[in-house]
Design a protein that fits this description.
alpha+beta; eight-stranded antiparallel beta sheet
């Protein structure tokens, strides 16, 4: 017997917000809602996630989808929460296809297959933009940009871990432990898409340790701007401090990224400030990383100056045992030794360093203006007997 063909169903659609920051909000009810939630639950039971890349967000932000478009009383709004599956996207193609105002779209197995005429919202009925929902989607777009710089961090961190691990120092173990804890939480969040209480506690402790160690090594690097070039051990300690400071800055950057993700889930009103913090960490990191990599260049310039000075002397000045030539020659030999040691310490990370800085700059620019929403994520929210569920996904769930 042939299986009866599924009849397309209408869903309510709203276009909310102002030009440049608009959302298409789809409200699924009845049988279609149950089918979609059932599919999401099956995915969760099979893989531990509603969709492969789902990232948890605060239900408070997702609820603003319903509140913003509602022209009903509190009782009706409460009922809508428990009977509606909400999906929202800022994808320009979707916004273009649904028109303006409010109306309905016909959903078939392949997505939108038709739509009823849309009715413009009356000017006497103000529509409040769902600010928290828009913020969740914008933040998800921004977080996509972090992936390119993150891959570069991993490439350099491995070399830094080895360099630091070779030296016995009071704070080396603490820094490496904090780094590995943050890496573990980062990978776990990538798999789970949400933070457990255990992850939140471990992140808070690692964040505290990383911040203190970053400040310590930063101060040591800046204090060693006039290194004692006569002492080989002093040069090695300066290079060790530089490696440690760079690793600590990487850990701080990854912690700042995770803090944005935590606020998306736990503290939606703090997302804007945590994004500002991430931007500041990237800006500061780019300047500091270049400063660290300029150490060998500064030494090379000093070598050139001393060589020129030595060549400008006459024979007596250059060759008398206690003359100026002997002093300059000793300083030159010390600079050459320091330059060689510093170049050795930089060689392990130089191959990836320039691409890291370029990726960081591109990420910073994208964080400032994530306007390209052609691959806009989808925000999903519903409430059932198990509680509230809200997440964002890069997958286009509404075609």
């Amino acid at each position: 017997m042939d299986t009866p063909e599924e009849v397309p169903q209408e869903v309510a659609v709203r276009r909310l917000g102002k030009e440049g920051s608009e959302l298409a909000v789809f409200e699924f009810q009845g049988k279609l809602r149950e089918q979609m939630i059932s599919s999401l639950r099956e995915g969760y039971l099979a893989t531990g996630s509603y969709v492969p890349d789902a990232k948890a967000v605060s239900p408070q932000g997702a609820m603003s989808l319903a509140v913003a478009g509602a022209a009903t009383g509190a009782t009706a709004l409460s009922a809508a929460f428990s009977s509606t599956l909400y999906m929202a996207t800022a994808n320009p193609a979707t916004l273009m296809s649904i028109g303006n105002g409010v109306g309905s779209a016909v959903m078939g197995a392949g997505g939108i297959v038709g739509q009823a005429p849309f009715i413009a919202v009356a000017s006497s009925l103000p529509v409040v933009a769902p600010i928290l929902a828009m913020q969740a989607l914008n933040t998800a777009v921004m977080m996509q940009q972090f992936k390119q710089v993150d891959r570069k961090l991993d490439a350099i961190k491995g070399a830094l871990d080895k360099a630091i691990g070779r030296i016995e120092a009071t704070h080396a173990g603490e820094l490496l432990a904090a780094s590995r804890t943050v890496d573990d939480i980062y990978r776990q969040y990538g798999l789970d898409g949400s933070f457990s209480n255990d992850m939140l506690i471990r992140l808070a402790l690692a964040e505290r340790d990383a911040s203190a160690l970053a400040a310590r090594f930063r101060q040591l690097v800046e204090a060693r701007s006039t290194t004692n070039f006569d002492d080989v051990e002093e040069i090695q300690r300066a290079n060790y401090d530089a490696h440690s400071a760079m690793l600590a800055s990487f850990v701080e950057l990854r912690v700042s990224y995770l803090r944005v993700c935590v606020d998306m889930q736990e503290n939606p009103k703090s997302v804007a400030s945590s994004i500002d913090r991430l931007k500041a960490v990237i800006d500061d990191g780019i300047v500091f990383w270049q400063q660290l990599q300029d150490r060998s260049r500064v030494l090379k310039e000093q070598i050139g100056q001393l060589e020129a000075k030595l060549q400008g002397m006459n024979w007596a000045e250059r060759n008398l045992p206690r003359g100026e030539g002997a002093t300059v020659g000793k300083a030159l030999a010390n600079r050459v030794r320091a330059y060689t040691e510093t170049m050795e310490s930089e060689r392990a990370i130089m191959s990836e360093f320039h691409s890291l800085v370029e990726s960081a700059r591109a990420t910073r620019k994208a964080l400032e203006a994530p306007a390209d929403a052609s691959t806009s994520p989808t925000l999903v929210y519903w409430k059932d007997e198990l509680g509230e569920h809200a997440f964002v996904t890069e997958k286009n769930l509404i075609s």
